[in-house]
Design a protein that fits this description.
By secondary structure, the protein is an alpha+beta fold. The strands form 3 sheets. The protein has a 5-stranded mixed β-sheet, sandwiched between helices. Strands 8-9-10 form a 3-stranded antiparallel β-sheet. Helix 5 packs across helix 6. The chain is globular. The N and C termini lie far apart (45 Å). The relative contact order is 0.11. InterPro entries: CpXC_dom (IPR025682). It comes from Blautia obeum.
């Protein structure tokens, strides 16, 4: 079941104290309306009832897409190791491997949204991290002066899988990645089944380490 509670927050603009609803965990099978609120990140937004100012309040939450056996835990960087133990330590909540759960740990709302979109598109986020590296190299080769901070997976209005180019928080372009994804997939045949892999923190650092390991073999 989904769980939420109320905490008092103080508006940074007018200092009015109000109630903010925090979601400790979200089960989309039981509360399907919450999925869109996660995707548009409105669960992290608070609007002051006094002055009308809206600001972001990031917090840890467990996203549970139970109908697809997907569980994504959003935590701070300092909580990653402890959260991993919850999944696979001696005192784990339950055996995710037996249940064939697809589990991930992320450290920002943007990462949470991206993981949901990747899995909903039927893609492998491990391969997607390789695609991001390939796309980065391609972008810099074709336009060495182009500046961007990150590439983030999304699906455009016509259903095409893309990487959105983001610079200083603004979207500056997009890259069609379907062909690149197929190419990357052909070079990842040694990956474990997505639901059998105990690596659950999948990001740029993970794929760089994976490539370094392959070079040293």
């Amino acid at each position: 079941m989904s769980r939420h509670h109320i905490e008092k927050v103080t508006c940074p603009s007018c200092h009015h104290e109000g109630d903010f609803e925090l979601w400790d965990n979200i089960n989309t099978a039981l509360n399907p309306e919450m999925k869109e609120k996660v995707l548009n990140q409105s669960i992290f937004l608070y609007t002051c009832p006094s002055c009308g100012e809206t600001f972001r309040l990031n917090y840890s939450t467990l996203y549970h897409q139970m109908e697809d056996l997907i569980m994504i835990y959003l935590v701070s960087e300092s909580e990653v190791e402890k959260t991993y133990e919850m999944f696979y330590g001696e005192n784990a909540l339950f055996d995710f491997r037996t249940e064939k759960y697809l589990s991930r740990i992320v450290t920002s709302p943007n990462q949470l949204v991206e993981k949901i979109q990747i899995f909903d598109a039927g893609k492998d986020d491990r391969i997607m991290e390789l695609v991001k590296l390939l796309a980065t190299d391609s972008l810099l080769e074709n336009n060495p002066d182009e500046e961007f901070d990150e590439l983030r997976f999304a699906v455009d209005d016509d259903g095409t899988n893309i990487l959105v180019i983001i610079n200083k928080g603004e979207t500056t372009g997009a890259v069609d990645i379907d062909d690149m994804y197929e190419f990357a997939s052909s070079h990842c045949t040694d990956f474990k089944d997505l639901r059998d892999d105990e690596d659950i923190v999948i990001n740029r650092e993970w794929i760089l380490n994976k490539l370094a390991e392959a070079e040293n073999e």
